[in-house]
Amino acid sequence: MDLKDSKTQKMMIGALALFIVVYFWYSRVYSHYNAEISIKNQEFETITTNLRNVEMKAKSLDALKLEYTDLLKRYEEIETLLPEVKQLPSMLVQLHTASSLTGTRIVKVLPRPVASAEFYNVASFEIEMTGTYHDFGSFIGYVANFPFIANISGMDIKAQKIVISKANTEESNQREVGRKQETMTATFVLSTYFVKEEERLAELSL
Hints:
This protein is of the alpha+beta class. It has helices at residues 6-79, 88-102, 133-144, 166-174, and strands spanning 105-111, 115-116, 120-131, 150-159, 184-195.
């Protein structure tokens, strides 16, 4: 290669100029934008990771909401079996209704002090009742179907002494039509349960 040749010199100058242009483009433009691209790429990966985490948390939250709703529904179903304090008079009304429907007769209702348990209270009543054995059995069936939990304990059943005499026969003839002769006396404790106010579950807003 003849360096003194003008064509060779022009080619070398052109190549040098191209090198200088490429160098400046790489060092001033490409490197700058390449650094920005790297930073943006890192930001993109960070944002993508965060979005995936948020998406996973959202799915987890939806699952928790469904589980909470299901548990709350089951809790409310159980809670309906435990009357509130203000519903105790309604229980006594149902007690007298059951007695009337079965032909038994309530002689005494004596409330006991409210007993406290772990998360609920127990309201109990001493009951004395008269009637026939069959009617008393029907009464127990009505109590078992109360719309809340009710328990009968301490049951004591005694047969009434029936003396057949002329006076009793006349009294029997004067008895109301359809009214049966009482043959037994039962005493027992009727208990129901209600959740303590401070133990009631407050619904969350999700």
